[in-house]
Amino acid sequence: MTNPSGHSLAGNSVSENYEGEFGCTLMDLRKLMELRSADAVTQISTHYGGVQDICARLKTSPVEGLSGNPTDLEKRRLVFGQNVIPPKKPKTFLELVWEALQDVTLIILEIAAIISLVLSFYRPPGGDNEMCGQASSGPDEEEEAETGWIEGAAILTSVIIVVLVTAFNDWSKEKQFRGLQSRIELEQKFCIIRNGQLIQLPVAEIVVGDIAQIKYGDLLPADGILIQGNDLKIDESSLTGESDHVKKSLDKDPMLLSGTHVMEGSGRMVVTAVGINSQTGIIFTLLGASEEDEEENKKKAKTQDGVALEIQPLNSQEGIDIEEREKKVNKMPKKEKSVLQGKLTRLAVQIGKAGLIMSALTVVILILYFVIDNFVIQGRAWLPECTPVYIQYFVKFFIIGVTVLVVAVPEGLPLAVTISLAYSVKKMMKDNNLVRHLDACETMGNATAICSDKTGTLTMNRMTVVQAYVGNTHYRQIPSPDVFPPKVLDLIVNGISINSAYTSKILPSEKEGGLPRQVGNKTECALLGFVTDLKQDYQAVRNEMPEEKLFKVYTFNSVRKSMSTIIRKPEGGFRMFSKGASEIMLRKCNRILNKEGETIPFKSKDRDDMVHNVIEPMANEGLRTICIAYRDFDDTEPMWDNENEILTELTCIAVVGIEDPVRPEVPDAINKCKRAGITVRMVTGDNVNTARAIATKCGILTPGDDFLCLEGKEFNRLIRNEKGEVEQEKLDKIWPKLRVLARSSPTDKHTLVKGIIDSTVGEQRQVVAVTGDGTNDGPALKKADVGFAMGIAGTDVAKEASDIILTDDNFTSIVKAVMWGRNVYDSISKFLQFQLTVNVVAVIVAFTGACITQDSPLKAVQMLWVNLIMDTFASLALATEPPTDSLLRRRPYGRNKPLISRTMMKNILGHAVYQLTVVFFLVFAGERLFDIDSGRKAPLHSPPSQHYTIVFNTFVLMQLFNEINSRKIHGEKNVFAGIYHNAIFCSVVLGTFFCQIFIVEFGGKPFSCTSLTLEQWLWCVFIGIGELLWGQVISAIPTKSLKFLKEAGHGADKEEITKDAEGMEEIDLAEMELRRGQILWFRGLNRIQTQIEVINTFQTGASFKGVLKRQNMSQHLDVKLVPSSYSTAVAPVKSPPSTSSAVTAPPMGNQSGQSVP
């Protein structure tokens, strides 16, 4: 492959000098990594003399790894590059300014302001003709006419401020997302062997020549060649589009590529290409190679759930099939915007329509009134020299009309949403929630069900063996090693030490007197701890039998539910050690060791007795039971691929009971969930009795409840018909009562999640959150409304499919996420309540004022101040309210709950009535009250009047005090509760107040203000404080008694969305409205689109592999293996709002990412 970007080749002289030190160049390795299977094997053996020789050329040891010497590492980075793919350049501030300027309403305002400016400088010859009507009157006539340009200039200035504020917000938002992105990338570490030590290294620090330990669930961070592997299967669909897993072995296909997923097995590889020289990197470089193609790439790259690229690095027939498949996939309806985005867009459209009508009406009425008054009633003739004067009047009317529109549309809304989400995301980091997709944060607030794993999430994932059954004796505590015959002890120690991943270890505690550290798979660590408790050394056994000497390994997966390792015996023949879920393993045993260590027959009756007397009592105490067994092959070597033949006729050595204590904080968290109307279900691979015992300890089950605990088999029997298809009706009878699903496979988990989401039982659709850590939890995590991956125990694949990563693997963090999600929703509602009151009042005042007095009491610049500055500040103040526990004391809102409840509608209309009464009273009777000159019917270019300054000042102060009222949306009386906890709110309110004083006293002509006396100021403040008192009156009126109130801002209708969404990039409800030709344009569209773009960018770019990874879960549909009820879904799937319409991936591998169930 040619290299598109110059800088990735080791072209500079320094690297050329060093390149000679290694036995192969960067280009040699790149060419080698482009080969596959047989070609690669041939090339490695003929040209390089085998993998060991490649290691020698790269000056690395296949066992010890690199020395970790800083000079050596730096040299390797110079020659072979760093393991970093440079991110796309962010938009510059000027680009963002240009984007903000595209706003239609702003453009109209700019044009109007420019016309106004031009006309103010143009002095027509007959301009002062008495016949043209009044231009200005009074002694300062000339001077005032000279300053006619100020209004136009002020409008332009305020437009510039708005644009800069918008651009700055977008810029800081993008900066925040980039910070978050780099945090996600830093989170990803990989197991590397350096100096014989296994260490966790950030992916960016990996260099060519490193020896990497790969295991089930890893996402490969660089290209490499396999040195040693056990049963290794890789999912290469992200690069090739083929969904079948590729078997990797030294003799058939040793090439491992970055960005692919390890689906089974383990092994070691030598890293041969990193960063932009790896296969993923080459693709990225090709993408960024030509700027002109970028737009095209964007279009190609967007698929339903993020960015997914189909790129075929090999010249093969597959490329054509992929294009076909991509066409099919692209026809599917895209994932809808989050529920909140949908509701807001709809609301903005509705308000936009109303504003457009009102502003058009205002302009028409003003022009008609002027024309009729001048030319009909006063009977003037239209004189040519008067034309500029009339045009000036018309421009003034037009500006008033546009101002009404500006005020009508709540363009502060998208800003409030972003601020609220960004603020929440930042704070959620502290609560151990790393949010990968912004909208997940808000969806969590609507969650009605949580399907949680047991191990590590509800329990501490600190496993210890506490009981054992060996030689027909049940030991309630760990016995001393003397009780066992040497042969039995030897079998236990070897059976555990050899038959577990060598990456699982027990290390001494970091703190003095602390518990030993468990590294690797926790169940295996418990077993190794058992060996240590028996005063034996597992490491000595492993040193005698290093990983290279293991003959064959059947690694753990969710189908086998066991792991087996085969070794050669010194005296000839083979021995296989197995371990796994006890009831499954015992079915495969036909012999058992007795007290003396001799094998005796083990019949089905003995098995039933053992299950009844040993396994069930252990499980009822919440212990996970594991059986350890072995089998000798002395005669002939069997067919190793025939697994079913090999995993039979085993001899049982022991059954152990492993305790994983419940996290102390979990019962309280589950109790909070119940109070908040959220159902918690446990989905686990464990025995049903163990699961039931843990569920009772957690509080998921309480004695006397009528709830179901099912095993996966039973669950499937109840929900499938004769053909084996899942029937929604049958599932609907089960899930409402189901609380524990045990011995479940990843497919069961996906079926349950899909079933609950698709269910129509109950008044509203369920919003489901799911936790997962295993590779095969991917489909369930993607299907769920919110997928939580485990930050510690989770595999890279699970993290990639998730929306939020729990950095501490703790269930209580999910409850925090619910709290933040609800808080986002409430913050938006608070802002809406405030914003809409301002809008309703300002529009009515401008409209009626214009119609009655031919001039809006609130001038264009004043309106812009009220609208834009107060909106921006208010969105900041109301969107950053911290969450309180009271949020968890109510039920979820649900997907269809309108944004504006009837209580909020009562508040909006109630406050609007107060404000309108005050404003109209001041406009029509204010001059008599304050004994000042009237500002009504002032001629063009007349100076600002005290009368209208009081109107403006009172209006702003009423908004300011109403902002405090808006802090509560559920009719609470105390609007000051917790106000001191929000410093931003306090500073915004005070800041706005001081700005207002400055504007009134020093704003002068640009703001159409003149300074007020202290008495007038006190009256304005007094009327403003009246808002707080009036708020108490409104909250005292019960909402139920006001039957006429309607809700607004409903969610979209499911059917309607899917119909319109066919073939669209994303379901944008505003665009649908536009398509129907019902509206020409409106203020908020541009901002809301920007918001969505930012969120999309965030969703798609969550890590540099994001481009290549996400589609293998959602896009390559392996229809054959999927249970047939949804295997037909190749045609566009009708998806409920806000859920991915991807068809599930085939069942594969383990649900909990553990080596033992």
TrEMBL record:
Locations listed in the record: Cell membrane; Membrane
Annotated TM spans: 356-377, 397-423, 831-852, 908-925, 945-962, 983-1004, 1016-1037
Entry membrane topology: Multi-pass membrane protein
Region described as Disordered: 1132-1157
Low complexity composition-biased segments: 1132-1147
Main location group: membrane
Domain of life where this protein originates: Eukaryota
SUPFAM superfamilies: Calcium ATPase, transduction domain A, Calcium ATPase, transmembrane domain M, HAD-like, Metal cation-transporting ATPase, ATP-binding domain N
Listed EC numbers: 7.2.2.10
InterPro entries listed in its UniProt record: ATP_Ca_trans_C, ATPase_P-typ_cation-transptr_C, ATPase_P-typ_cation-transptr_N, ATPase_P-typ_cyto_dom_N, ATPase_P-typ_P_site, ATPase_P-typ_TM_dom_sf, ATPase_P-typ_transduc_dom_A_sf, ATPase_P-type_domA
Reactions listed under catalytic activity: Ca(2+)(in) + ATP + H2O = Ca(2+)(out) + ADP + phosphate + H(+)
Function: Catalyzes the hydrolysis of ATP coupled with the transport of calcium.
Entries under NCBIfam families matching the protein: ATPase-IIB_Ca, ATPase_P-type
Family (UniProt): Belongs to the cation transport ATPase (P-type) (TC 3.A.3) family. Type IIB subfamily.
Protein name as annotated: Calcium-transporting ATPase
